[in-house]
User: Fold this.
Amino acid sequence: MKIIECPRDAMQGFETFIPTEKKIEYINALLKVGFDTIDCGSFVSEKSIPQMRDTWKVLPQLDLSETDTKLLVIVANERGAQKAVTYEQISYLGFPFSISETFQQRNTNASQKEAFNRVQNIYELCLKEEKELVVYLSMGFGNPYGDFWDISLVEHWADRFVSMGIKVISLSDTVGVAQPDDIATLFKSVTQSFPGIEFGAHLHTEAFNWLPKVEAAYNNGCKRFDGAIKGFGGCPMAQSNLIGNMPTEHLIRFFSEERADFFINDEEFVEAMQLATTVFPAVHS
Assistant:
């Protein structure tokens, strides 16, 4: 079982700029917890995501000397990827490929065809630089734009990326529209159709409906879950009212009750949760 902590997703929609020193302190605290991976930043347009404009300053200050946790950053084009691969601290590059044509344009200023070509180029760069590419299928459970969606469409794009050579694909409920039945059906289908591929769940949720979503994914083969402490964040490119991330503390409690095979340092996690209230002070004011 893998838990991916996503401070990048928590921070990116936060209007007040979080000082670089505070980001470094927070991510270093997260590195002590024992997460499989930390989604720690991005190399995208500063105009689009101003909160992440200092990722290049944060990375060299992260202490990886006593952790097995790996780092992931998000990129949206070849230029960002070329910057990202120069950092030895980074193990994974993540690319958001949208099932919705409308959201692909909104999120990366590219058509699906253009975005697919970007993924191909970035994948080849990752092979050369010994990084791994994670593809996020954004709007993977539907969208608010009226664009066509069904499970066969998700399977179509998954097949194209698997054929390319991608080994990790995260199904993303970008705006929190996923229903448990769809989550269950989709994860059951892709895990059976593409054995050997690691499918993750990046679920956005409201406080009252997180459990059925996690249960649906977990009970149908998902062993990789993204979360953010206290559910902070959401995708600022999707809609004006952000739906929060899956709270990591809920994931930990659920997997503990299920006796899943994962490790978390409980004391360090409590410390990180307490620190989060100083990273996102406006949420607690």
About this structure: The CA atoms of residues 150 and 249 lie 31 Å apart.
